[in-house]
Specification:
Elements: E1 2-4, E2 7-8, H1 19-28, E3 35-42, E4 45-46, E5 66-72, H2 73-103, H3 107-135, H4 141-163, H5 166-200
Parallel strand pairs: 1-5
Antiparallel strand pairs: 1-2, 3-4, 3-5
Helix pairs in contact: 2-3, 2-5, 3-5, 4-5
Length: about 200
Amino acid sequence: MIIVDGRRSGKEVSNFGNLEEVLTHVMEEQDMEDRVVTDVFVNNESFSEIYPHQAEDITCNSIASVEVRTVSAGAMAMDIAAEMSKVARMMGTGARHVARLFREAANSDALELLQDMLDVTRDFMGMTAVLRENYAKERDPEFTDLTDKLSELLTEMSESLEMEDWILLADLLEYEFLPMCEEWRVVSEHLNQLMKRCIVQ
């Protein structure tokens, strides 16, 4: 038995060799275009891959039922956009904490947290750019300017890292990066509103 979003499929699990074939077939159906899988249940138990293509190793003779739950890509994008301003706030909190650690000469702790914060910042920038490109039709010069400013600041921070100038790095985080996070929070909220209008239309 194969169930997709609460509806029973016309095909049976026994028609396929392994779980990956089942999932591939489900996602190739015409009405699955522009949808994203959120949950998979195998024999009524939640399934997620521990390693890439694990589903290929699960043969269908051990499976009685597969249930797939999806959401539209637009709905998922809206959920992500709604969280972006929280992420910007977290980036600001992280910057304040890292700057304090550098000023206290707890450099190894500061560097570890700084790396995490930079990873989050890169992910934030990438996701914001994807959301704007795919779901927000309006051009926003403020977004472009802010992106350029952040890129320049990250370059300056990298140079401070190379020179091991921890006090300068603390200053950049506290007096430049932190206020910029607040600007990003405002831009994120604007993007969220913009997407709501565009996706609803």
